[in-house]
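Morning F.,

Quick status update on the modeling queue. The single chain you submitted on Monday has been processed. Sequence for confirmation:
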Amino acid sequence: MKDAHKTLGLWSIRRALTFAFTAAVVLLVAAWFLLSLLLGSPPHAEPKPLETKDLLELLKLVFALVAGVGALVALVTAYRRQRVDEAAGERAERVQAHVEYGQGVELLGHDKAAVRLGGLYSLERLAQDHPYYRQTVIDVVCSYLRMPFRATPAEHDDQSEQAEQFDDRTAQEPELQVRLTAQRLLKRHLTVTEPGNEPSTFWDGIDIDLTGAHLIHLDFTDCRPASATFTNAHFSGEAKFRGARFIGQVRFDGAQFGGDARFGEAQFGGSARFEGAQFRREARFAKAQFAGPAGFEGAQFGGDARFGEAQFGEYVGFEGAQFSGNASFSEAQFGVYAVFEGTQFGGEARFGKAHFRGSARFEGTRFSGDTRFEGAQFGEYAVFDGTQFGGHAVFNGVKFGGDARFGGAHFEHDPDFDGAMASYPIENHVWPSPWRAQRDTADGAQLTREN
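Structure tokens below.
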């Protein structure tokens, strides 16, 4: 090919040889002058006729120069030949890899489950050997999992769905094995159990898109995807994300969790979206870390929800969320905005020793069971206007660092603010009867019960 050297990133042969010969001459002349300077050439030496031995030495020098140039030309030519051979080998390897990729994808479309399994393993081996195919292979695997799938009755979580009968149950079972294998493939190449010690099987910088996928007993424990999308995904059985680390954005909006959802100690580096997610059973987010904004607006928690010791970044929103079971936010850390407006707590709600560094908004929130804020700290605004407390409301030892407002709040039982402290001036607060603030220090007040 006329311009092949451009493809390989090389100079043309004429340009390379011209540069090499010129460089050799320049170096020879420079060496001659440097040698003359070091030996101190006489400035006014009389020219003498050359003797035979001098002519022979000069002839040897010329031959050596010619041989050096020839060797340089041979070296340049050999280097170019090697680079061409290497490029040809790389090209052949890429062509072979592309062929294997096409064959693997074709096998995934086969009507027999065993052949589809072979296609998965073939694609996995290809991506392990050729890193530039890893994201592409992951995309193919995710696309396969996004395809429509009906689990057998045994895989459903709802008792009414278990009673449903399918016409071809046995045909679903082999396909289930293929999908479970695909899920294990994702976990195998996204898992890091020891931070800083990544295994050779780990594929870095991988994006996951499982929008609308039906996932069975998904295990993403200790996985490290760059970003992940599970929008409208359906999780049958337990979903394990304990210790997972999401570097970028993660989306679970509209997702349905049929079994327990375990996100304990998970780390969310970017935004985490759970808007409209449905948790039929227990949802565990204990010690989870949210570096970016976290959205649980409209989420439904059918079982207990555990957010104890969770750490939230600048914003977390639970507007309109529904907690049917008990909800625990004990010792949780909240950032600038913690919004629970219109949230409904059906069971006990625990916020003991929680720390709200910024604004905490509970306007219109409904607590059907007991509500416990013992030892909690509010940094700025604590707004409970229009909140309904159906059970006992306990605020013992709470510290209100900013304005506290309970205007229009309704209590089925007398609230308890024993040992609670508030900022001064006290005129900025609105307390429920029969409690009021009495100045205790220069910048603080203590809540007391009026007789």
